[in-house]
């Protein structure tokens, strides 16, 4: 079986192309594989945040389908950072030119993707559509006694931190916080509670704290459902950008490029509003392939990685240069 190790802003994944890998894994074994190779302690080369599965598209409009399996084996409806890497992989395979957009099928929508200009020298980047957006409690899987939550309190979580909830379409709960709260334990405390047995979000939720740096720059730290604290979460940064525009920038925030910093790097976002009033977000960031991996499927399922062939691509060195430049 062949895999790629990829990342977007340090949010790292194994990428499995079911059409190419020779893998005949059934559903049960696919989940087992994700849990086994992604485990941060006993997994493959330090594990990963999830497994991205590339499949044939079910509609003609899309070139491929992406499924996202979190490290804990749960399935997510979308993954923004992962979609950029899948877009790069599919474009390479189908020999799509850099100026040509195409679509990738995800759980709820066919999403537009396209190569973007390099984020830095030799750091390939992709731009992906984040959509559909909903503020409805039903779509978010939220039970807080109201139909939506927009800069509101959930007193059982905090008496002071105000939250907004949005599905893009995976569920997100975001809050603006100051430097002190951003650096503290509150995010992990609240997110751990909401991703355990609880009545507010019985299916869990991705929780992010946003720290505003300027009218064009925010910092986002995320605790992901099914994973834990990650270096970055693409859909969370998109959801945070949308809430930032709606609550703080208002009309002048639409169609403007924002920089979203995160513990693993930086992406750019643009918040759009369609004629019918609905929103979508462009997410632009690195799509880095760090290694080509070959392993025996049966051995991988049992967590035996002794015979794995792991070949670094050299791309990570360039990405680390980009990170260093951000710190200057
Ligand atoms: N890291 C992803 C989001 C992955 C799914 C998430 N953990 C969920 O369960 O909704 C991203 O970049 O968007």
TrEMBL record:
<feature type="site" description="Could be important to modulate the pK values of the two catalytic cysteine residues">
    <location>
        <position position="224"/>
    </location>
</feature>
<comment type="pathway">
    <text>Amino-acid biosynthesis; L-lysine biosynthesis via DAP pathway; DL-2,6-diaminopimelate from LL-2,6-diaminopimelate: step 1/1.</text>
</comment>
<feature type="binding site">
    <location>
        <begin position="80"/>
        <end position="81"/>
    </location>
    <ligand>
        <name>substrate</name>
    </ligand>
</feature>
<comment type="function">
    <text>Catalyzes the stereoinversion of LL-2,6-diaminopimelate (L,L-DAP) to meso-diaminopimelate (meso-DAP), a precursor of L-lysine and an essential component of the bacterial peptidoglycan.</text>
</comment>
<keyword id="KW-0413">Isomerase</keyword>
<feature type="site" description="Could be important to modulate the pK values of the two catalytic cysteine residues">
    <location>
        <position position="172"/>
    </location>
</feature>
<feature type="binding site">
    <location>
        <position position="170"/>
    </location>
    <ligand>
        <name>substrate</name>
    </ligand>
</feature>
<feature type="binding site">
    <location>
        <position position="206"/>
    </location>
    <ligand>
        <name>substrate</name>
    </ligand>
</feature>
<feature type="active site" description="Proton acceptor">
    <location>
        <position position="233"/>
    </location>
</feature>
<protein>
    <recommendedName>
        <fullName>Diaminopimelate epimerase</fullName>
        <ecNumber>5.1.1.7</ecNumber>
    </recommendedName>
</protein>
<keyword id="KW-0028">Amino-acid biosynthesis</keyword>
<dbReference type="Pfam" id="PF01678">
    <property type="entry name" value="DAP_epimerase"/>
</dbReference>
<dbReference type="InterPro" id="IPR018510">
    <property type="entry name" value="DAP_epimerase_AS"/>
</dbReference>
<comment type="subunit">
    <text>Homodimer.</text>
</comment>
<feature type="binding site">
    <location>
        <position position="11"/>
    </location>
    <ligand>
        <name>substrate</name>
    </ligand>
</feature>
<keyword id="KW-0457">Lysine biosynthesis</keyword>
<feature type="binding site">
    <location>
        <position position="70"/>
    </location>
    <ligand>
        <name>substrate</name>
    </ligand>
</feature>
<comment type="similarity">
    <text>Belongs to the diaminopimelate epimerase family.</text>
</comment>
<dbReference type="GO" id="GO:0008837">
    <property type="term" value="F:diaminopimelate epimerase activity"/>
</dbReference>
<dbReference type="GO" id="GO:0009089">
    <property type="term" value="P:lysine biosynthetic process via diaminopimelate"/>
</dbReference>
<dbReference type="GO" id="GO:0005829">
    <property type="term" value="C:cytosol"/>
</dbReference>
<feature type="active site" description="Proton donor">
    <location>
        <position position="79"/>
    </location>
</feature>
<dbReference type="InterPro" id="IPR001653">
    <property type="entry name" value="DAP_epimerase_DapF"/>
</dbReference>
<keyword id="KW-0963">Cytoplasm</keyword>
<feature type="binding site">
    <location>
        <begin position="234"/>
        <end position="235"/>
    </location>
    <ligand>
        <name>substrate</name>
    </ligand>
</feature>
<feature type="binding site">
    <location>
        <begin position="224"/>
        <end position="225"/>
    </location>
    <ligand>
        <name>substrate</name>
    </ligand>
</feature>
<feature type="active site">
    <location>
        <position position="79"/>
    </location>
</feature>
């Amino acid at each position: 079986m062949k895999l790629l190790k990829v990342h977007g802003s340090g949010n790292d994944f194994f990428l499995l192309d079911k059409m190419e890998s020779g893998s005949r894994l059934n559903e049960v074994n696919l989940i087992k594989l994700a849990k086994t190779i992604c485990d941060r302690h006993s997994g493959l080369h330090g594990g990963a945040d999830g497994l991205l599965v590339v499949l044939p598209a079910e509609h003609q409009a899309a070139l491929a389908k992406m499924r996202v399996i979190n490290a804990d084996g749960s399935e997510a409806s979308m993954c923004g950072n992962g979609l950029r890497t899948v877009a790069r992989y599919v474009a390479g395979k189908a020999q799509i030119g850099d100026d040509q957009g195409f679509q990738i099928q995800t759980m709820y929508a066919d999403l537009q993707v396209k190569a973007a200009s390099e984020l830095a020298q030799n750091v390939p980047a992709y731009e992906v559509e984040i959509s559909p957006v909903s503020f409805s409690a039903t779509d978010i899987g939220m039970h807080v006694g109201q139909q939506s939550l927009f800069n509101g309190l959930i007193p059982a979580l905090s008496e002071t931190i105000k939250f907004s909830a949005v599905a893009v379409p995976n569920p997100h709960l975001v809050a603006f916080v100051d430097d002190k709260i951003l650096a503290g334990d509150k995010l992990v405390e609240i997110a751990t509670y909401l991703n355990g047995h609880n009545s507010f979000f019985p299916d869990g939720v991705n929780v992010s704290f946003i720290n505003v740096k300027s009218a064009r720059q925010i910092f986002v730290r995320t605790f992901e459902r099914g994973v834990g604290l990650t270096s970055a979460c693409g859909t969370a940064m998109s959801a945070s950008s949308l809430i930032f525009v709606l609550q703080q920038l208002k009309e002048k925030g639409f169609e403007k490029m924002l920089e979203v910093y995160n513990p693993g790097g930086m992406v750019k976002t643009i918040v759009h509003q369609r004629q019918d009033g609905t929103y979508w977000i462009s997410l632009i960031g690195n799509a880095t392939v760090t290694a080509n991996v070959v392993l025996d499927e049966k051995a991988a399922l049992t967590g035996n990685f002794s015979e794995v062939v792991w070949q670094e691509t050299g791309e990570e060195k360039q990405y680390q240069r980009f990170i260093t430049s951000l710190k200057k």
